[in-house]
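Standup notes
- DV: blocked on the single-chain target, sequence here:
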Amino acid sequence: MKSHPSQVTDPSMLARAIRRACQFTTAGTLCLLAPTVLAQAGADSEDAYALDGTVIEASASAELESADSYQVKRTSAATRLSLTPRETPQSVSVVTQAQLEDFQLTSALDALQATPGVSVERVETDRIYFTARGFDITNFQFDGIGAPMMYKNLQGDIDTAVYERIEVLRGANGLLSGTGNPSATVNFVRKRPTRDTQIALSGSVGSWNKRRLEADVSGSLGDADRVRGRLVVAAQDAGSYLDRLERESQTVYGVVEIDMTDRTLLTAGHSWQRQNTDSPLWGALPLYYSDGSPTDFDVSTSTSADWAYWDNTDNRSFVEVSHLFANSWEGKASLNYIDKDSESALFYQYGTPDRQTGLGLFAYPSLYDLNIEKLIADLHVKGPFDLAGREHELVAGVQWSRSELEDESNYGLGIGTPLPPLDQWNGAYPQPAFTGGVDGSQWIDRQTGIYTTARLSLTDRLTAMVGGRLSQFDGDGLSYGATRDTRYDDVFTPYAGLIFDLTDSVSLYASYTEIFQPQTEMDINRDRLEPIEGVQYEAGIKAELSSGADASLAVFRVEQDNVAEARGTIPGSVDTAYGAAEGLTSEGVEATLAGELLPNLQASLGYTYVDIQNPDGERARTFIPQHMVRAMTTYRLPFYEQVKVGAQVSWQDSIYRDQGAGVTTRQDDYALIDLMASYAITDNLNATLNINNVTDEKYLTSLYWAQGFYGAPRNAMLTLGWNY
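- DV (later): unblocked, structure below
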C-alpha cells in the first residue's frame, strides 16, 4: 500500500483499531471491554479467531430472528409501527445476521447485491449507485432515520460488522424519508448492547491476499445491569483482481445503553470507518472501438495510474431517548450527526480507441476533495387508541435535517495527453502538478417534515393504513458556478394502504402513495433539474407458511416525470450531464420467499420483473435488467449437525446501452454462483469456506454509464470464528 497521511501501518490491525475505539466511542466506559478482546487477539493479527453464526440481540430491540434464520419477525421500516411482513402493505426484504455471516457479506455492496429486486451499479471501484424497480435508490436510513443522498451515490463502502440486519422496503417511502422515491429505502439496523457478556472474534484469509479481523464484545458495565455497552471492531487489508488496486479499511463502533428509569432508556453511540484505496478506477474502460465494435479486455484491466488514491472517512454519532408512558404509548427523540470526508488523486481516461492500434485514449488527472455534514433530528410518539369500540394504532412525529456539501476539483496539468493502448498500460504516468484550475461546490439543503400514520382496525379481517407527511425543502449555494437555490413549501405526500386477511395466515393488500423528490443532478448548463413527481400503486398477497417462512407476491405501477437520465458530459469537464425524462412508467412483479422452508433448510428467494417505458411506449433505462433472480439457501445436515452447506445465485437477463452514433453496448444474461460450507469444530469454534463466482463468469458490472469494468472472477475466503 502506498503511504497516505491517514493510513494505519501497524501490523496488528485489530489491536490498533480497538485502541482507536477509545478515542471515538461516545462513552469511555466502553474501553473497559477492550482488554478482553486484546487478550484474545494478541500482537499478531494471524492469531485471531472468528465469529460463529450467533446473533447477539439488543436489549431494547424488537423481535429478531433466531441464529440460523433467514426470516425477521417484525420490521418498522415502512411506518415506525412494529409490524410483521404480512401486516406491512409494501414489499419488504431483510438481509439477516445469519445471511451476512453464512456468505461473508462484509460489504453493504455485497449484501444489497443479494437482496431481491436491487441492482448494485458498480460504475467505478469506489463510487456506486443502486437501483430498484427501475430507479435510483436515494435514501439510506440508519435505525429508521435518514436523509437523501446528496449525490445519490455511495463513495467507498459500508462495513456490515456494525449492523444486526439490513431492511429493504421496496417502493416509495415519502412518509418517513420526506422524498417519495419509488425505488426502495435501505435501512441499516445497528447492533445494540446485551445484558449478558458475549464475545465474538473472527479472522479471514482469501484470494488476492485478503485478510480480515473482526471483534464484537457486548455486556453489562455494572452489577445492576442498568448500563450496557457494545464494541465492534473490524479491520481489512486486500489486494484485487484489478491491476494495481489495493484497499485497506478499519471500522470501529461503540454504543452504550443506560436505564435512566424503569421506563426511560438513553442510548448513545458512534461509528468510525476509514477506507483507503490505492489505484482506484475513476471512470472505467471504454466499451467500444471507433468502428463501433465492442471492446473485450482482460478482466484485470484498469485505467488507473499507480499514484492514484481515493480515501473515505465516515463518522456517525447518535443519541436516543426512549420513554414508555403509563398508557402503553412510547415516545422517542433522536439526534444523528454524520460527517463524511473524501480525499482523492484520480486518473481518468477518455476517448474512443482504434481497434487496430488501441490508440485514441487521453489523460485527465484531477484532485478531488469532498465533505458532507448532516444533522438529523426526529421526535415521534406511537401507541394504541380506542375508536368505535375497536383498538387502533397511531404514530406521529416531526423531523428536521440539515445537509451541507462542499467539494473541490483541482485539475492536473497535461489534460489531453495521448496514452498508450490499454493492453500496454501499466499505470506508469508521471503524477502532474494539479494547478490547471480549481472549481467546486458549496451548498446547504434543509428539510422539515411532520408525519402521521394511523393503523385502523376496521373489522376483524380488514385493516387500513392512512397517513401523510407535510414537508418543506429549501437549499442555497453554488455548484461549479451554477446556483443550487431551491425552495418547496407545504409539499404533502399521502400514504394509504389496505390489508385484508383471507385467513389467519394469508392476506391481500394494496397501497398508494405520491412521489415528490428534489434532485441534485445538473443539466448540460449546470442547472439543477426540477423535482421528480409521480404516483405509485402496489397490490399483492402475503402469506405466513406453516414451516415458518414468509411468502409474498406484489404487482406495482409507478408513473413519474422529470426523472434524471445521464446524457453525456458537461462541456469542459468529465462531469455527467443529465436530462429530465418525462412520462416514465415502471410496471412489474416481485415474488419473495424467506425463512425456514423445511427442517434445517433456510432460504431467501426472490424474482423481479420490471418494464420501464417512455411516453412513446419504448423501453427506457435499458441498463436495468427486466428480469432478476436472487436466491440464497443453506442446509444443516440432520445426520451431522456440525456441517452446514449453502449456495447463492444472482441472475439477470441481458441489458444494453445506446452509446449514440448507432453504437449499442450489450451485456448478455449471466448468473453468479457462490458456494459455502461451515464446520463446527467445537461448540465455540467454527470454520467457514466461501467460494464466489465458481463458474468464473466474465461480465460487466454495470452499463449505468458509457464506460464499465468487469466483475471479480472466481475467488475464495476461509473464516475461522470463535464466540463466547
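- Follow-up: The chain is about 5% helix and 55% strand.
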